[in-house]
Amino acid sequence: MIGPSQEVIDSALEALRTVGIEEADLLVTLGSGQANPWEDEVEVGVTYRELPGWDAPAVAGHGGKLSLVRVGPENVLVMAGRHHYYEARSYEAVITPLRVSHALGVRRALLTNSVGALRSGLRPGDLVLISDHIFLQGPRLPLLLQGAWPQGVRPGYWKEGGAAIVEAAGRAGISVTEGVLLCVSGPMYETRAEAEMARRLGADVVAMSLAPEALIARALGCRVVGLSLVTNTVGEAGHADLHHEEVIAAAARFQPILTRLLREVIPALAAISDDEPAGH
User: Tell me: domain 6-271, CATH 3.40.50.1580, correct?
Assistant: First the structure.
């Protein structure tokens, strides 16, 4: 299987079992500046630094804590923060959490991140359901995933899960639009010319995360939905230089919207029968 050795995976599993995390049904990952919607209901929490192979993020706004919460009948793992490919130019620390989660029983993943808007009309605070992505982080991950899918199987996003998000958003009075994510290596933000190129490629939002985790999780056999929070616009005329602190501040400002939606949608994702087709 892709990624770190089985010894590393087993060591991480043993560390989790030691603190009381033995099984899970669903994984939620949180992006830059995003907080755990169930923080007051955490049953068990552990920092990434305590888990073998689970590197702590070096980027501000990524807390580096794994929590177990109970949502109805589901055991939900919540990753507050992620390790990015650009931090070490390696996917080892991206792959490990997903392999460990899968070993704990996770077969459904809701991946979130903070993104820049490319499409006209998208503004900070908007939520985008990822319908597809354009992966431009280079050949390393595709090489790691070589042979992970039977010929002709496309590593797409879970349609029924996406529909559940849209329905949950409607119940919560929250607007969600669909869009295509462009995933780049980073860590620099896009120039105006690069943003224009991305629009011509068909991208609606841009980020440095989510697509790698989606590809890895799909290779492991999980159903995956992606949800992006727009924190800034990209490459607009007159737009000042963007700093990561602005992204974090915007994510915190719109956290109540994301919290409402995530708390509404997790039970809806759990209610979808495993007998239904994944819709990828």
Answer: yes
